[in-house]
Amino acid sequence: MAAAESVDFAVLGYAITSMETEIYRPSRIILLGEDASPEARRSTSLDVLVSPSPPPFFLWHTAEDVRVPPEHSYRFAATLARYDAPRTVHVFAHGPHNLGLAEGAGDASGWTALAEAWMSEQLRSGRR
After folding, report:
1. DSSP state, 106?
2. Do residues 45 and 19 make contact, with C-beta atoms less than 8 angstroms apart?
3. Could you give the CA distance from residue 92 to residue 32 in angstroms, rounded to a whole number?
4. How confident is the model at residue 42, as a pLDDT?
5. Which residues 6+ apart lie within 8 Å of 18 measured at CB?
6. In whole angstroms, what is the distance from residue 60 CA to residue 119 CA?
7. What is the pLDDT of residues 86-108, one digit of tens each?
8. 7-34 in b/e burial notation, b at 16+ Cβ within 10 A?
9. Distance between CA atoms of residues 54 and 79, nearest Å
10. What's the CA gap between 55 and 53, in Å, rounded?
11. Rounded to an integer, what is the distance from CA 62 to the centroid of its chain?
């Protein structure tokens, strides 16, 4: 039998982390449909799928994101905190959704350097 696969660490940018909340319901409708069952919503909500000993997470968002509000990152960070999971959260003051690498996007343009340093630390620490 093959060894179970696991995630060593994860970087999430402006991620939709919950389908159970009404925080920006349009995202849920686009992804799951208007009539998604509670079971479907729960089974696709990262914030309820966190298990003991989750990997480290790097979350970044912008406060001005109206497509996926930063509350998704805040709530997910709170879930990770309940498990005492290593986490880094950056919410930049300015910038819309869908910035990608955010080149030339003010303070949000720093997310890639922050993520690079964080990933290097994860690889050096060998936590997983």
Report:
1. G
2. yes
3. 28
4. 93
5. 45, 46, 47, 48, 72, 75, 76
6. 14
7. 999 999 999 887 887 777 778 88
8. eebebbbbbbbbbebebbeebbeeeeee
9. 10
10. 7
11. 12
**Distance between CA 30 and CA 11 in Å, rounded?**
23
Q: How far is CA 73 from CA 57, 79, 126, in A?
A: 11, 10, 25
Q: Please tell me the pTM assigned to this model.
A: 0.86
Location of structure tokens 């970087």: 11
The rounded distance, in Å, linking the Cα atoms of 118 and 16 is 21
The type of residue at 112 is T
Q: What are residue 72's phi and psi, to 5 degrees? A: -60, -45
Helix (H, G, I), strand (E, B) or coil at 90: strand
Give the pair of three-digit tokens for residue 4.
Answer: 């179970």
- In the chain, what are the domain boundaries? 10-17+53-125
**Which residue matches tokens 């402006």?**
14
β-bridge mates for residue 77, sequence order: none
**What is the token pair recorded at 88?**
């880094």
